[in-house]
Design brief:
DNA/RNA_pol_sf; 5-stranded mixed beta sheet; 4 domains; extended; 49% helix; alpha+beta; RT_dom
Length: 590
C-alpha cells in the first residue's frame, strides 16, 4: 500500500512550556469585551488556535500502513542492509545483521510498551447562564457509530450513536446540572444517572422482589410475571416540546428552562466513518448521546412513563435509562395484570412520540412448580416473545436472569467474557513487561468482569464458585504469580458483604481490615515472576473475626436478653404454681 501522509503537532516539553507561557501572558480582554456568548466563543477559539500554531507547529510525515509504532529509521536502514547481504549471498554479514535487527526490534518494542504503561499512571462562564444561551458552535456534533452487538445484522438498529462534542461544552453543562439539580424531581425507581443508584441497585431491587415473591407465603405459592420493555432509538426520539413542558411542570427556574431550549434547538450533526465525514444534517428531535446533561434530560422525559398504570394492578416498575422492567406477583392460576400495564406504556409512548421495540421487548414467567403460564402479552397485533433467560443491563457487563432464578448462565457468560481478555495478559508477557503491568491489567480489565454485581448472585453453589476461581488462577498463572498472591474472589465477596451488613446494622467502626496485598518488586518481569515472588497467602481468620466480631457481639447480647426474659417468666410461673399448691394445702387442712 502507498504511504499515507499524517499531520501532527510537536508535543515536546519545551513546546508545551511555550504554550503555557503564551496563555499566561495573553490579554484575554478581547474575550471579556464581547457581549454575546457566540462571539466570546469565536474569539476564544481564534486566540487558542493561533497559540497552538505558534507553540505547537503542525508537521507532516509520510508513514506506511504496515509500519509498527516502535519502528525507527535506524531499524529500517539495518533491515535494508540485511536484505542486501542476503541477496548478495554474504552469509556471515547477513547473520550478524539479522541478530542485530532482531535485538533492536525487541528492545524498541519493550521500550515503546513500557513508555505507554508509565504514561498511563501519570473565559467568563457566567455569560452563558445569564444570557440563557448555549453557544452555537458547541451545538455541532460528530457522530461516531459504535456497534452494539457483533456480528452486525441490522444497520439501522445495531449501532449506538455517540456524539463527539467539545469538552468545554461539557463543563458548561455540568455547571448547569450542579446549579439546578435540586429542581429535578426524578422518581426513585430510576437507577440511571442518579446519585446513589447504579446497575447494581437496579438489579438488586428486581431480583430481591422476585426471590421474595416466589417463596412460600401465607397467600400461597406465587409466581412472577416479568416484562422487559425496550424503546426504539429512545434518546433520538425525545420530542423537544414535550421535554420543555415537563421541565416547566417541575418548576425549574426560568433561566434554566430558556437555556435548555437554546441547548436543544438548532443542533446539527455529521457522521464520521473511517475518517470520512457525511453531509451536515439538522436534529429536530432527540438529545445528543455523549453530552453531560442529556441523560438527566432523558430521565425527566421518561419520568412519567408508568403514571397511567393502575395502582390496583400491583405492578412493580424499575427503570435504568430506557431499559424498563415491570413485574407482578400472581398466585398460580390467577390472571396477570401486565397486559394492562403494557397497554398504558404503549399509550404513553404514542402520546410522547416514542416507539416500543416489539422485537426486543420480552416477557418471562418465573415459578418453581409446574403450573400453566399467564396468557401471552401483545403490543397491538404483535405477540411478545416469551423467553427462559434474559440479559438485563448487560451491554457492557453480563447479567442474565433465568426463569428458575439460577446463575448458571451468568457464570458461564462471565467466565467466557473474562477468557476473551486473557490475550491482554499474554501480550504483556510476550513484550517482557514488568509484573506490575500484567497485574494492573488483570485488576482493571478481568477481575471487574468476574465481580460485577456480586451482591445479587454472590450466594453461589460450590461448583459455580470454582469456575470463577479457575478464571483468576489462570490469569495469575499467565502473569507468573502464585495462586495465593491475591485473595480469592469468594473471600472478597465475603468481606464486601460483611462490610455492607455492618453498614446496614449501623455499627460504627474506626476502620476495616482489608485483605493483604504485597506489591511485587519493581525489577520483576513476567519471566522472573514465577521464581522471585513469594506466596502471599496468609491466615485470614483474624480478618473475618475482626469484621464479624461486632455482629457476633450483638447476637450474643440478643441471646442473653432472651434468656433473662425466659428465666423471669419461668420464675413467675413457678411462684404462681407454688402459691396455688399452698392455698390448696391450706384448704384441705381446714
Amino acid at each position: 500500500m502507498p504511504p499515507v501522509s499524517k499531520k501532527y503537532r510537536q508535543m515536546k516539553p519545551e513546546n508545551l512550556n511555550v504554550l503555557g507561557l503564551k496563555m499566561n501572558l495573553e490579554d484575554w480582554e478581547k474575550v471579556y469585551s464581547e457581549w454575546d456568548v457566540d462571539d466570546k466563543v469565536s474569539v476564544f477559539n481564534y486566540i487558542v488556535i493561533c497559540m497552538l500554531d505558534e507553540a505547537l507547529p503542525v508537521r507532516t510525515v509520510r508513514a506506511h500502513c504496515t509500519d509498527k509504532p516502535w519502528m525507527t529509521p535506524n531499524i529500517k536502514a539495518l533491515i535494508k542492509a540485511r536484505q542486501r547481504a542476503f541477496t548478495k549471498g554474504e552469509t556471515p554479514k547477513y547473520k550478524s545483521l539479522h541478530a542485530k535487527v532482531t535485538k533492536l526490534i525487541s528492545n524498541a518494542k519493550a521500550t515503546y510498551y513500557k513508555s505507554k504503561a508509565e504514561g498511563n499512571h501519570q473565559s467568563n462562564p457566567a455569560k452563558c447562564i445569564v444570557q440563557c444561551k448555549y453557544p452555537t458552535s458547541y451545538k455541532h456534533a460528530i457522530i461516531s457509530p459504535i456497534p452494539k452487538i457483533r456480528p452486525l445484522t441490522d444497520l439501522d438498529n445495531d449501532f449506538r450513536q455517540v456524539s463527539v462534542l467539545p469538552q468545554l461544552a461539557k463543563v458548561i453543562e455540568k455547571l448547569q446540572l450542579q446549579l439546578n439539580k435540586s429542581s429535578f424531581k426524578i422518581k426513585t425507581n430510576q437507577h440511571a444517572f442518579t446519585s446513589g443508584h447504579s446497575t447494581v441497585s437496579a438489579l438488586t431491587s428486581i431480583s430481591q422482589n422476585w426471590f421474595d415473591s416466589t417463596d412460600n407465603s401465607s397467600t400461597g405459592r406465587q409466581g412472577v410475571h416479568a416484562l422487559f420493555v425496550d424503546f426504539r432509538k429512545a434518546f433520538d426520539l425525545v420530542d423537544h416540546k414535550f421535554l420543555l413542558d415537563k421541565l416547566a411542570d417541575m418548576n425549574v427556574t426560568r433561566s434554566f428552562w430558556l437555556w435548555t431550549m437554546s441547548f436543544l434547538e438548532g443542533r446539527t450533526q455529521q457522521v464520521n466513518l473511517q475518517g470520512v465525514l457525511s453531509f451536515t444534517a439538522s436534529c429536530p428531535a432527540g438529545v445528543p448521546q455523549g453530552s453531560a446533561i442529556s441523560p438527566t434530560l432523558f430521565n425527566i422525559h421518561i419520568n412519567d412513563m408508568e403514571e397511567n398504570v393502575s395502582e390496583q394492578a400491583c405492578v412493580n416498575t424499575i427503570k435504568y435509562a430506557d431499559d424498563c422492567t415491570m413485574d407482578t406477583s400472581i398466585r398460580l392460576g390467577e390472571f396477570s395484570d401486565l397486559q394492562s400495564a403494557l397497554d398504558s406504556v404503549q399509550s404513553w409512548a404514542v402520546e410522547n412520540k416514542m416507539e416500543l421495540n416489539v422485537k426486543k421487548t420480552k416477557d418471562m414467567w418465573i415459578n418453581f412448580i409446574e403450573a400453566p403460564p399467564p396468557l401471552p402479552l401483545h403490543i397491538g397485533d404483535a405477540i411478545i416473545e416469551r423467553v427462559d433467560n434474559f440479559k438485563l443491563l448487560g451491554v457492557d457487563n453480563l447479567k442474565l436472569f433465568q426463569k428458575d432464578l439460577k446463575w448458571n448462565k451468568h457464570v458461564e457468560e462471565t467466565t467466557r467474557k473474562a477468557a476473551k481478555n486473557l490475550y491482554c495478559l499474554r501480550e504483556c508477557r510476550r513484550a517482557n513487561l514488568p509484573v506490575e503491568v500484567g497485574l494492573t491489567t488483570y485488576l482493571t480489565k478481568i477481575r471487574p468482569i468476574l465481580e460485577y454485581c456480586f451482591p445479587v448472585w454472590g450466594g453461589l453453589p460450590r461448583y459455580l464458585k470454582d469456575e470463577l476461581e479457575r478464571a483468576q488462577r489462570k490469569s495469575l498463572r499467565i502473569i507468573g504469580l502464585p495462586h495465593g498472591y491475591l485473595p480469592t474472589l469468594e473471600e472478597r465477596r465475603i468481606e464486601a458483604t460483611s462490610r455492607e451488613l455492618v453498614n446496614i446494622l449501623g455499627i460504627k467502626t474506626t476502620s476495616f481490615i482489608t485483605m493483604p496485598f504485597t506489591k511485587p518488586t519493581t525489577n520483576n518481569t513476567f519471566n522472573s515472576g514465577r521464581t522471585n515472588l513469594q506466596n502471599a497467602n496468609g491466615d485470614n481468620s483474624d480478618i473475618y473475626l475482626s469484621i464479624i466480631l461486632p455482629i457476633l457481639v450483638i447476637l450474643t447480647l440478643l441471646v442473653l436478653v432472651g434468656a433473662i426474659l425466659y428465666w423471669r417468666r419461668r420464675n413467675k410461673e413457678n411462684n404462681v404454681a407454688t402459691q396455688a399448691v399452698q392455698e390448696q394445702n391450706q384448704d384441705s387442712g381446714r
